[in-house]
Structures are given as structure tokens and as C-alpha cells.
Amino acid sequence: MAGDSAIGIHDLSFATTEFVLTHTELARHNGTDIGKYHQGIGQRSMSVPATDEDIVTMGAAAAAPLIARHGGDGIRTIIFATESSIDQAKSAGVYVHSLLGLASATRVVELKQACYGATAALQFAIGLVRRDPAQRVLVVAADIAKYEPDSPGEATQGAAAVAMLIGADPALLRIEEPSGVFTADVMDFWRPNYREAALVDGQESIGAYLLAVEGSWKDYTEHGGRAPDEFAAFCYHQPFTKMAYKAHRHLLNYCGYDIDEDRVARDLGLTTAYNNVIGNSYTASLYLALAALLDQAEDLTGRAIGFLSYGSGSVAEFFAGSVVPGYREHLRTTAHRAAIDRRRPVDHARYRELHGHSFPTDGGDHRTAAETTGPFRLAALRGHKRVYESR
Ligand code: HMG
User: Does 115 qualify as catalytic in the annotation?
Assistant: First the structure.
């Protein structure tokens, strides 16, 4: 039987970038029919970071409102999930810990498995809270999705960070047992350490995702999970929002249902509003789907939500959460909409400049132009050290 752990997501907040590129502008440049972007992949715009923004500045900006509301007391662990790592040794979470002024009595670690990392972080956090229910764990998922210019992946770029406070008696969502898990060694998408842009076999990646949906669902049901009809909505990892539709139809087919498009729209319709304008944010994407659902749904009190987390390479997990009574009082809908609306549009030429920007690797003193209007910025790279500041 599906069980309610009474541990889960106590608060959730997200941040994204200073700039935004619309798909209309991208299509105007590359001659693509805009229908392919708007209908075909279901994307309208993508977040583009300023040169003084990265996973740390976004992660800290996402987490700061949680600390402002709840204080830092009780947070003894920060798990930073990303596949856009800025250092091979030091966790990006240590910079976030410092920018937020958290206590030294904290463990901080970085996790990686493509877009799946944040779900691993969530599950590991639940384990820590089960061991010590007084503890809260700060999970930060932050990524910048970057592909080669003029490649098919270019239209599926984006960037964002989600911060979640995981604890006992959560105010938003109780994470249930069981989870269904799945791993397969596939090369659908990867990024060798010497590359900034990911390599991807687009069609293979879609097939690998669908296989992982089947595999994780099968394991979920074999461990006593809920039936499809018990869910009020399904949040999928959304590399582009149409992928959620492909995945959900695949799941329903696999479960023996005839595809009813009204049902598919009901199950997914409210989960795509943020990813549709932010683009792929890798680890953060699934939890942006949750934010969009909670921020827009009439009332989900007591209802079950299904989650399908997919990370290329590949690892997937299907799990469920039940929505806590009173959750609507704790939502950050206005701030979430503001994070999207405050972005400044860039034209194609400026986007390409930002896309091509990289820091010199000579260890000199390289200051960044002050571009972001967000609360934190990457001020310089000095002696191979990243220097951050609060604004
Ligand atoms: P593509 O191959 O250029 O596009 O790139 P396409 O030809 O497959 O067309 C896309 C859709 O638009 C199709 O619909 C077309 O029919 C339609 P579908 O057949 O799929 O339903 N279309 C149009 N519709 C309306 N009007 C038109 C029109 N023209 C075409 N005029 C692809 C698409 C997704 C492959 C590419 O963007 C890509 O490689 N993206 C990156 C990889 C990716 O996102 N994969 C998703 C699964 S893997 C994953 O989720 C993990 C990931 O997040 C990484 C991680 O885990 O860390 C990527």
C-alpha cells in the first residue's frame, strides 16, 4: 500500500535568470516555422543567464526566501543537485551556505545524475529527517541547459534553480512510499568534463526517457504504488513541455488505457506554465512543474500527485506526494510570477554573445560586468577562485 511518511516539502521557491530569449526571436533568426517551437515542442521562451549569474547565484536567490521565512535554525544539511557544476571538488552548496549566512554546524554536498539529481537529493533528505525529525534539509537544484548554437537542442535551453525545505510535518506536500526506480546505461545525453555544451542524440533521448517511464512505473506498482486513476495530476521532468505529454500518453498506454486527450490535458495542463517560458532547467525542471501546478490549481488538498523524475544516462524514479491541508497559505505564487516577468528580453545577437561568453583560464583577476539585478552576483574570477557578492 502507498504510505504517507509525514515528511516532505515544507516550502518551495524558485529563481531564474536576468535575460530571456523568445522562441519567436530564435525562429526569426534560424528560419524555423514557429509552430515547431510553440506547438511541436511546446516552448515559448528560454531563460538566459547574465555573465555574472550561475548556478550559485540562482541557487542562493531561490533559497534566500526560504531562510527569510523560516530562519536557518534546524538546517543541518544542504544538498545541491546540479549537472552544471562549477568546480570538480568544491560543492556549489558551500558558496550558497556562505551567501545565506548559515551556521557552520552544517554538512554540504553536491549530487549529480543529470536531471534526476534533485530527486535523489529529496529522497536522501527524507532519510536524514526520518533519522532526526527535528532536522530540516535544504535541497537546491540549479542548472543551466546549454547546447551548441544551431543544433536541434538549442531550442530546449533554459536555466533556473529551485530550493526546497524538506522536513517533518511539511506545509506543502507529504512524500509517500513507495518509489519506483530504474537505471539503464544509455548514451542519450552527456557532457564530458572538457565541454560546456551537452552532447545529445535527440530521438534516442526521447526513447530512453519513455523506457525509463515504463521501468520506474513497473517498479512503483510492484512495490504497492497507487493506480493511475488515484492521481489528481502528474508532474514530469520537462526538457520541453511536449515531452510530458509524450511520456504521459506512453504511461497510460502501458497501463492499458485508451488515450483520452481530455484526460491527458487534465492530468498535465497546469504543470507546464513555468517550464514553457523558462526552458529546460535540468534538475529544477520537475519541481518547477510542481510549483506551476500548486500555484495554479483550484484546490488540491488531500489529493495525490504523481512525479516522474528522469535524468539522462539514465536514472528515473516514479513517486507520489499528497497535498497537505492549508498548503495554499504557504505558496509563493506572486514571487514566482515576478521571477519570470522581471527577465529582460534579449535579441538574437545579444543571446549569442552571452552564449559564447566564458572566463579566461589564466588565473588572473577578471571582474564581471554588473548585469544581473538579482540578489547575488558572481563578481570576479580571481586566482582561479570564484568571488560572489550580495547585491
Ligand atoms: P528536432 O529533431 O529538430 O525536432 O528536435 P523534430 O523534428 O522531432 O520536431 C519536434 C516536434 O515538432 C515533432 O513533434 C514535429 O512533428 C513537430 P512530435 O512528432 O515529436 O510530436 N513539428 C511541428 N509542429 C507544428 N508546426 C510545425 C512543426 N514542425 C515540426 N511547423 C529534439 C527535437 C527534442 C530532439 C531536440 O530539441 C533535442 O535534441 N533536444 C535536446 C534533447 C532533449 O530534450 N531530449 C528529451 C528527452 S531526454 C531528457 O529529458 C533529459 C535532459 O533533460 C537532460 C538530462 O537529463 O540532464 C535532456
Answer: yes
Q: How far is the CA of 389 from the centre of ligand 1 (A)?
A: 38
State yes or no: pLDDT of 381 exceeds 60: yes
Q: Which residues sit opposite 77 in a β-bridge? A: 107, 137
- Using the mean position of ligand 1's atoms as its centre, give its distance from the Cα of residue 350 in Å: 25
Please give the average per-residue pLDDT across 86-108, as a whole number.
Answer: 98
Q: What is the pLDDT of residue 5?
A: 58
Residue of the CA atom closest to atom 5 of ligand 1: 152
Confidence of residue 209 (pLDDT cuts 50, 70, 90): very high
Q: Atom 12, ligand 1: which residue's CA is nearest?
A: 40
pLDDT tens, residue by residue, 37-64:
999 999 999 999 999 999 999 999 999 9
- Rounded to an integer, the average pLDDT of 169-185 is 98
Q: At 19, which amino acid appears? A: F
83 is catalytic: yes
Other CB atoms within 10 A of residue 334 CB: 9
Is the pTM for the entire model greater than 0.90? yes
CATH 3.30.360.10 for domain 2-390, yes or no, is no
Task: Note the helical H segments in the chain.
Answer: 23-30, 34-35, 55-70, 92-99, 117-131, 202-222, 241-254, 261-268, 275-278, 285-296, 333-341, 348-356
Which is catalytic among the residues 83, 110, 214, 317? 83
CA-closest residue to ligand 1 atom 10: 40
- Alpha carbon distance 173, 327 (integer Å): 8
Centre of ligand 1 from the C-alpha of residue 348, in Å: 21
Domain ranges of the chain: 2-390
Give phi and psi for 367, each to the nearest 5.
Answer: -85, 150
At residue 2, the pLDDT reads 46
